Amino acid sequence: MIDSVFDEDMGLHHLAALASLVIYGAKKYCPQYCGGSTDLFMLPRKYFWDTLPVDKRKLENLEELFADKAPEKLIELIGDAAKIIK
């Protein structure tokens, strides 16, 4: 399902949103191994030595968004999630 949304031309925020969805899925479906708060850092191509952390509140908003949206809306969901990260 995730690979159907990935595109090589995706922007950094879309990729971070997609990564957040993968983490959310791991926490939801493998709670015995994954859980707790999520840390997500973006690595821009131009400045790969500078990481850009995604704010904890934004990550919580993303997880709420992922929980509320249906799988059929995955492409729209990633777009909405990218807007939260910006």
Summarize the structure in words.
This protein has one domain (11-85). 50% of the residues lie in helices and 5% in strands. The chain has helices at residues 12-29, 56-68, 74-85, and strands at 41-42, 52-53. The protein has a two-stranded antiparallel sheet. The longest helix is centred in the N-terminal third of the chain and has 18 residues, at 12-29. The chain is globular and about 35 Å long.
Q: How much of the sequence is in beta strands?
A: under 5%
**Which parts are unreliable, with pLDDT below 50 for 5 consecutive residues or more?**
none
Q: In which order are the strands of the major sheet placed?
A: 1-2
Question: Given the structure, what is the number of helices?
Answer: 3
Order of helices and strands: HEEHH
Give the helix level as a range of percent.
40-55%
- What is the total number of structural domains? 1
C-alpha end-to-end distance: 24 Å
- Tell how many strands the DSSP assignment holds: 2
Radius of gyration, CA atoms, in whole angstroms: 13 Å
Task: Produce the secondary structure layout.
Layout lengths: L11 H18 L11 E2 L9 E2 L2 H13 L5 H12 L1
Q: Could you give a quick summary of the protein structure above?
A:
The chain has helices at 12-29, 56-68, 74-85; strands spanning 41-42, 52-53. With 86 residues, the protein is mainly alpha-helical. It has one domain.
